[in-house]
Amino acid sequence: MNLLLIPERILNKHMSNYADQTLKCEDCSKDFIFTAGEQEFFDKKGFSQQPKRCPDCRSARKHNKGGGGGGGRSAGGPRGDKPKFPATCSRCGVGFEAPFQPKPDRPVFCRDCFKSGAK
Ligand SMILES: [Zn+2]
Ligand SMILES: [Zn+2]
Fold first, then answer.
1. Domain edges within the chain
2. What predicted TM-score, i.e. pTM, was given to this entire model?
3. For 19-108, where are the alpha helices, taking DSSP H only?
4. What spacing in Å lies between the alpha carbon of 118 and ligand 2's midpoint?
5. Mean pLDDT of residues grouped by 10 in the chain (119 residues)?
6. For the CA of 23, the nearest ligand
């Protein structure tokens, strides 16, 4: 498990040998253990601070921060945010929005004409 905490660098570097510490979570006020191993890890990473939140709240926060509400559908390209291009149907002359840049040398068809088999 990776601990990703934003280093706030409260200079507090007196601990040379590590022992488990009980800390209180800033969010839920629950006690949690800041283990010797974690302390060493923190120190190696140069985080001279103690975690302020219990692991539960930490992972909850991480979740909230990265997600943006639900799906990883921003990068992969499924429909929704595609640009639209104004186009004129080559068959019926209606204006519509094409999901691609219409090429002047190629006919484009509105949805209806496309559905009814214009090619
Ligand atoms: Zn908590
Ligand atoms: Zn048409």
1. 17-64, 85-115
2. 0.39
3. 36-45, 55-67
4. 8
5. 56 65 96 94 88 93 66 51 86 91 89 82
6. 1
